Amino acid sequence: AANRMQADGLTVKTEQELVLDGGSVDLKNSDLEIRMLTLCAAQKDRGDCDTPDVGYLAHENRMAGVDNAVSLNNVKIHRPAVDIGYYTTTIFGGKVNIEASDIQEWGITLIDAGTQWNKTYGSQNAYDVTTSSGNVLTVKNSTFTPERPGECHVSFLGNQVVLDGVTLGEKSICLPPINLTIGMRVRQSRSQRTTGLTCGTLRLRRMK
Q1: Residue 38 burial (10 A CB sphere; 0-12, 13-18, 19+)
Q2: What are phi and psi of 57, to 5 degrees?
Q3: With contact defined as beta carbons under 8 Å apart, do 202 and 196 qualify?
Q4: Which of 27, 28, 45, 184 has its CA 20 to 30 A from that of 12?
Q5: Is 0.90 surpassed by the pTM of this model?
Q6: What is the pLDDT of residues 129-159, one digit of tens each?
Q7: Are 77 and 32 in contact (CB under 8 A)?
Q8: How far apart are CA 94 and CA 27, in angstroms?
């Protein structure tokens, strides 16, 4: 894909949001201490603000082809030492590959390989992702560590999902809500979640 964003050895420390967008996103050997993170590889990306003409709602709409890929290799994502509230990690592309990485979670983590990604914020929060053949999400030899079990949510979505050597665990007793969705479409609102097809096996290993 054109407009390729590459970073090797990136170090970021901030209590704000970091957004890395491009036709493809390739991040290696990096350490991010960040409040909110968005990694997006897409053909089109548009949105609006919470103004009266859109019903005081904010919208994000993204479209990706299979050549719009997000790749993380040996990346550590962790949160500021001071708890300053809400945290999110959003990763979207036509293909997503995460390898040998460590992601610490204090909020919502959405990792999606799809063709369309739509999200609405405000009084009517909604999340809608469509996938097609070739939208593959691969996670290998990586760890996801939720730090606040009652406030964490981890979601993996793709037309094909490959989890190999993935550890989902935490320092506390309870695991967070975890969604593994393999299908054509997922829609989620405050009151409803629907999928075109849900299947697969998720193996969990408790961290020591």
Answers
A1: middle
A2: -120, 155
A3: no
A4: 45
A5: no
A6: 888 888 999 999 998 887 665 666 778 888 8
A7: yes
A8: 16
